[in-house]
Amino acid sequence: MGNARTIACLVPARTDSAWFHETLRANVDVYFLQGRIRFIDLRGGSQATPFSLMLVVFGATAEQKVAYAYAVAGFWMDRK
Asked: Residue 25 and residue 80: Cα distance in Å, rounded?
């Protein structure tokens, strides 16, 4: 609808998938998270994901990228 400036998607880091390669053709920024993310369940416990994750961001600003890298260990994949 054109109302969003930035869209962030937390997805499995499956670099061998067709979806990953198709996404890289778009104007997106990809941030690979270091290690496994832990999610908190309803009882207060936590469990790590069974796979690595990446953040795919459409419309990321330079400030958003710096802030995210500061908050979460990982690295941005450079676009050429």
From this structure: 11
Quick check: 38 and 48 in contact, CB under 8 A?
Answer: yes
44's tokens: 């207060």
Residue indicated by tokens 């796979």: 51
Distance CA 18, CA 29 (A): 17
Alpha helices in the chain (DSSP H): 18-24, 62-71
Q: Which of 65, 64, 67 is nearest to 76 (CA)?
A: 65
Q: Distance between CA 52 and CA 73 in Å, rounded?
A: 13
Could you report the per-residue pLDDT of 31-74, keeping only the tens digit for each?
999 988 888 988 889 988 889 999 999 999 999 999 999 999 99
Flag whether the pTM goes above 0.90.
Answer: no
